[in-house]
């Protein structure tokens, strides 16, 4: 495999091991000595602070330092002798103090004379050993000193305590840190090389155990990409790879099921595409219907208007007839436009429904009364079967439009006995309203199409009474906005339209 995860894992791990070892080697080589010196300087500064505080306390008590040292040679903690002993034992700091009251010398070093001579050399500025000032304070200095006699280095702190008269010298031997660094780095190189070699062997062995199931999973995924979902991961490990293998087995089963569902969905999609084509065809029919509905009245208006202009109606009677035709056709166009606007507002949701309680019986009586002239013209008989008062929830204005559409539809399609029956039946939570008219039954395949815009069962008959085919579409939009049921059915001797409203018990 060109970019094996096994090789990359080994390279990354080995690279990290080498980087860590190299970083430790560099830190040892460049910073360990400075760190060691800084630690030792800190020890000297801490020792000076402790001694200075104790010396000042002794002098405030009116005692000399040497007397105090002689008196508390075997004293308890916090005494001068105890502090000097602690500095020598814990930090290997040798201390020399020259008492300014009696010039007596206090020292924890055996080589007292040499330290006394060096202290005076530093104070008097005489010839001194080779040194390097590391820190200079007001009362003391810390320096790194080379002693040619012992061929070794020391850290020394010398100067005065806060009384500016008591001389001190603190001496701290430092090991040859450079040699120690070189030795440590040499040892680290050997150990690091061995660790890298052993790590490579261990990584190779462990990588095989780790990557083998991963390679199996890779083969499994390749088979799945070829839509072969019968292969399964057969590992028994309970680690993350085992979990991944079981997940891939589950994924294989899910994919198999999903592809089957996709195939089913694809078949459904084909049906939806066909349905969309039907919708597009309906849209085209809608445009054609609007054009057709407007074409006839526009042609009539244009024709009769031209006749008036050309003087074809010279007498008043003809002119009145021409004008009546023009006004009638303009009224039909105006009614069509208003219905289209009303339907568009309902379907788009801009015409909000105002739900309130109203008396449905009063509404129906009003609709029948408003159509009295048309009823008499049609020589129809209207029979109403309903309670004197029945309260329902809905938009009274829109429900009145539904009732008017149903009633006008019934009047326009009357035949035979010319009878219309309006019935209101109370049910548990709803009120069921039916409008029946005697006449020809509607073909079953046309029943559902009645609610479609511009659909007309009898286009020739519809033209006679000026119908546009939008009335029932408006009924559908209103009832859908109320979330209530509606419908139509063929019954004996005629057709029955119905709708339901929510009943209120106020």
What does this structure look like?
By secondary structure, the protein is α+β, with helices and mostly antiparallel strands. 59% of the residues lie in helices and 17% in strands. It contains 13 helices and 13 strands. The protein has helices spanning 5-60, 65-71, 80-91, 112-124, 177-225, 240-309, 316-348, 360-370, 372-377, 396-412, 444-447, 459-465, 471-482; strands spanning 94-98, 105-107, 130-136, 140-147, 152-160, 167-174, 356-359, 381-385, 391-394, 419-426, 430-438, 486-491, 494-503. The strands form 2 sheets. Strands 7, 8, 9, 10, 11, 12 and 13 form a 7-stranded mixed beta sheet that branches. Strands 2-1-6-5-4-3 form a 6-stranded antiparallel beta sheet, sandwiched between helices. A hairpin with a 3-residue loop joins strand 3 and strand 4. Helix 6 (240-309) runs antiparallel to helix 7. The mean pLDDT is 78.
